[in-house]
Amino acid sequence: MRHFHATHTVFGFGFTLRAVVFGLLLIYCLTPWASPPIALALGLALAQTLGNPFARQTKLATAKLLQYSVIGLGFGMNAHAAVQAGKTGIVFTVVSILGTLVLGYVAGRWLGLTRHVTHLISCGTAICGGSAIAAVGPVLRAKDEEMSVALGTVFVLNAIALFAFPPIGRALAMTQSQFGLWCAIAIHDTSSVVGAATAYGDQALQVATTVKLARALWIIPVSIVTALIFKQKGVKIKIPYFILGFVAAMLINTFVPAAKPVGPVLVGAAKIGLTVTLFFIGAGLSGKVLKTVGARPFVLGLLLWAVISTASLYVILHTV
């Protein structure tokens, strides 16, 4: 293993073998043979064995790449269908967000967790995973270790959901709309929502992306309420502006005929970007990150996820 970390020099250029492995895996993720679940699995395998040689760079690139990929997916969406999907998901969104936050508060006290860790994990589960935690954390003035625990918990459960949801959906013979709605409500991060829905079908992808991004807008009111409850003054609310880019792309695709030929190209590039994003996320889940989580925060995250997944699945199968 030490051999992979040693620096080798060829033609005056220094490199490590683990950097070469990283590069080969990244190139594979750019090909048509890669899929979001495979990319995540490759990243996880790299993180647990050789480690990520570009951890700082991939961490910085992940958020931007995800945002640009989501905007690109907008060029494959129809505004009329999105409005209909949004109407279907609004009730589920409101009920599930409020229910998750209340249950998280009660369960967090029962587990003896701090208010900050409890609130961060609850917001991540209720709204949109790492993005919600990244937005609410500064409002709470949360410590780095509290942020790490919450993010680690959510990312581990995201990885599980990305692999587990498509087989469950097929086993239950869920329709494309049902599965897309379930993904948007029950999976934390936008990246894993889109990844799971992509594996299920194009219609599921459209429903999942639309409902999830509408759900992500709840970051704003939840951040404001957080500042009031935790009595934090002078904090800056982080607004997910990239959602406006997604809406703009969707409107262009729907109402500008001249943009139609470009749409499939941009959507294809966005799907590749999403695959690479999930590879980066997997590569960031090192053993150190997993150890940071601890048992009780993970139990809270697992409990909230289990409740929202099963409850939303039952309601969707019987009402949609």
Automatic annotation (TrEMBL):
<comment type="similarity">
    <text>Belongs to the UPF0324 family.</text>
</comment>
<feature type="transmembrane region" description="Helical">
    <location>
        <begin position="213"/>
        <end position="230"/>
    </location>
</feature>
<feature type="transmembrane region" description="Helical">
    <location>
        <begin position="298"/>
        <end position="317"/>
    </location>
</feature>
<keyword id="KW-0472">Membrane</keyword>
<feature type="transmembrane region" description="Helical">
    <location>
        <begin position="89"/>
        <end position="108"/>
    </location>
</feature>
<feature type="transmembrane region" description="Helical">
    <location>
        <begin position="265"/>
        <end position="286"/>
    </location>
</feature>
<protein>
    <recommendedName>
        <fullName>Sulfate exporter family transporter</fullName>
    </recommendedName>
</protein>
<keyword id="KW-0812">Transmembrane</keyword>
<feature type="transmembrane region" description="Helical">
    <location>
        <begin position="179"/>
        <end position="201"/>
    </location>
</feature>
<feature type="transmembrane region" description="Helical">
    <location>
        <begin position="147"/>
        <end position="167"/>
    </location>
</feature>
<feature type="transmembrane region" description="Helical">
    <location>
        <begin position="120"/>
        <end position="141"/>
    </location>
</feature>
<dbReference type="InterPro" id="IPR018383">
    <property type="entry name" value="UPF0324_pro"/>
</dbReference>
<feature type="transmembrane region" description="Helical">
    <location>
        <begin position="9"/>
        <end position="28"/>
    </location>
</feature>
<keyword id="KW-1003">Cell membrane</keyword>
<feature type="transmembrane region" description="Helical">
    <location>
        <begin position="239"/>
        <end position="259"/>
    </location>
</feature>
<dbReference type="Pfam" id="PF03601">
    <property type="entry name" value="Cons_hypoth698"/>
</dbReference>
<dbReference type="GO" id="GO:0005886">
    <property type="term" value="C:plasma membrane"/>
</dbReference>
<keyword id="KW-1133">Transmembrane helix</keyword>
